[in-house]
Amino acid sequence: MKFIGNILWLLLGGFEAAIGYFTGSVALAITIVGLPVAMQTFKIGMLCLWPFGTEVRKTSSPSGCIRIPLNFIWLIFGGLWACLVHIFFGLLLCITVVGFPWGKQHFKMATLSLAPFGKELVR
Q1: Which of 119, 120, 113, 118 is nearest to 18 (CA)?
Q2: Separation of alpha carbons 108 and 87, rounded Å
Q3: Can you tell me the distance from the alpha carbon of 36 to that of 101, in angstroms, rounded to the nearest whole number?
Q4: How far apart are CA 50 and CA 9, in angstroms?
Q5: What single DSSP character describes residue 28?
Q6: The whole model's pTM is what?
């Protein structure tokens, strides 16, 4: 069921969303200052490619005190908008019974796009 859900996800918009995140990641990686943020947008893009069967967890490695200011800067400069977009589409999909599993995946992406520093993807 996860495989079929992921294939439908890719065909019905997940691939385009992942391309958007990957394009943003490349644009941020061109600047050296944006490299840590580029890694986080790449992480969200990977979740957009294969959301079913992937879990978002806190990292076990200590990332120090830099995680909190980076999440705050992320939230101000685009993370809030990405989170709101995923919440909107999640609510839109949860209206129907058929779209409920895909809506849950959007809510998973909303939590990751709200504060991606200090989290990892586990398949």
Answers
A1: 113
A2: 9
A3: 31
A4: 8
A5: H
A6: 0.83
Q: Measured between alpha carbons, how far is residue 23 from residues 3, 57, 86 in Å? A: 25, 25, 18
Q: Give CB contacts under 8 A, 24+ apart, made by 98-103.
A: 101/5, 101/52, 102/5, 102/8, 102/9, 102/12
**What are 53's two structure tokens?**
């069967």
Q: Which residues pair with 87 in a beta bridge?
A: none
Read off φ and ψ for residue 58, nearest 5 degrees: -70, 145
In the chain, the amino acid numbered 68 is: I
Nearest to 45 by CA among 37, 4, 64, 100: 37
Treating both helix axes as pointing N-terminal to C-terminal, what angle do 80-94 and 100-114 enclose, rounded to 10 degrees?
Answer: 170
pLDDT values of the chain reduced to their tens digit, one per residue, 123 residues: 788 888 888 888 889 889 999 999 999 899 988 888 898 899 999 998 989 988 888 887 666 678 888 889 889 988 899 899 999 999 998 998 888 988 899 999 999 988 888 888 888
- Which H/E stretch holds residue 91? helix 80-94
